[in-house]
Amino acid sequence: MINLAGRDVGNHLGRYVLTGVGLGLLIGVTLTMAGVYRGMVDDAKVLLRAVHADVWVVQQDTLGPFAEPSSLQDDVYRSLLGLPGVAEAGNVAYLTMQVKHDGKDMRVMIAGYTPGSLGGPAFLVAGRPIAQSHYEAVADVKTGLAVGDRIRIRRHEFAVVGLTRRMVSSGGDPMVFIPLKDAQEAQFLKDNESIVNDRQRLAVNPAVNRPGQPGVLQAVEAIQTASHRVNAVLVRVREGFDARQVADHIQRWKHLTAYTTSDMEDVLVAKLIATAAKQIALFLVILAIVSAAIVAFIIYTMTMGKIKEIAVLKLIGTRDRTIAAMILQEALGLGVIGFFVGKFAATLWVPVFPKHVLLETTDAVAAFAITLVICSLASVLAIRAALNIDPAEAISG
């Protein structure tokens, strides 16, 4: 039997292929948007996976250290080490800021940790780990830095001694790891002018400078010790202990909030990127509707362009389901061409994006199935129009 769809497509091959390519670019944008969401989720989880911590301990009743501010005394980790099931604990400090390199600013997340303890980069692709307690850094390759470069963080310069890969913040900013003491100073310690101004205000404030009450000295001491704080304490659980039970024990007895790694992933995905996820989902729905409308319009136009041919087919006794199958095959053919063009286009332009875009096979399979469903539904209008054509059209004017 002659394939009617194949004959019709062959007669208008150029227009048909170009239409498929146009649809493919739209599908490519859809795949890219799905990849942007996947990349956001992966960025949110990559640090959690890299530090190998089982429990994150933060300020009580906060979603810190990423979704909300969190501040703890840096000696809290000592009290945690004495709890049952705690094998290791380490302080960490995180802050997002602009750093200078070669006179240019770059936005990074600074991660402060104690060298040799929890919180450092998972692996290095070049150089060595941080070995000193001050002024050394390990940077993600996304920063564009190289081993031996120097970057300025607040008042000090740091030598880049190592490079790591895929260490980014939940917002996609590359990370720079520095010693904990330097990160504490960068985040909590005031600049010299602020300290002088605070001392002058306190000196003339009678409320804190009464005779016999060393209010100024206490205030100055508070300023000087303000940097002895961290954002979170990472805990590694002993073998044989359950992380959930250890976290509950910490919350019950230490009046802190403790999250397991899975809890922290839920916080990052459900709280930190929830709004962006809803926007992307809405955009994907709009793209699907637009794609369906385009396919429906194209197939309907192609069908109406061959009214006489369809009338002749009906006149010679061609069954309605054969005509419907022809239109459906043309619509599905557009979908197949569009999907493969879109997949190729998305793979081609994804590396250009400044943030991580993750194209997953499961998303591609789902997109292919959805594309075929959309094309099938979009062909219904054209099929109904074709079946309503009067065979008499074949012999009319």
Task: Walk me through this protein's architecture.
The strands form two sheets. Strands 1, 3, 4, 5, 6, 7, 8, 9, 11 and 12 form a ten-stranded mixed beta sheet that branches. The protein contains twelve helices and twelve strands. Helix 1 crosses helix 11 (320-349), helix 2 (13-51) crosses helix 11 (320-349) and helix 9 packs parallel to helix 12 (361-387). The model has no long low-confidence stretch (mean pLDDT 84). By secondary structure, the chain is α+β, with helices and mostly antiparallel strands. It has three domains: 4-43 and 275-394, no CATH class; 60-189 and 227-255, no CATH class; 190-225.
Count of distinct strands = 12
Distance between the termini: 30 Å
What's the pLDDT, averaged over the residues? 84
* General form: elongated
Question: Radius of gyration, rounded?
Answer: 31 Å
Series of secondary-structure elements, N-terminal to C-terminal: HHEEHEEEEEEEHHHEEHEHHHHH
Percent helix among the residues? 40-55%
Total helices: the number is: 12
Unreliable spans are none
> Beta-strand level of the residues, as a percent range?
15-25%
Sheet having the most strands? 10 strands, mixed
Quickly count the domains.
3
Helix-strand category: alpha+beta
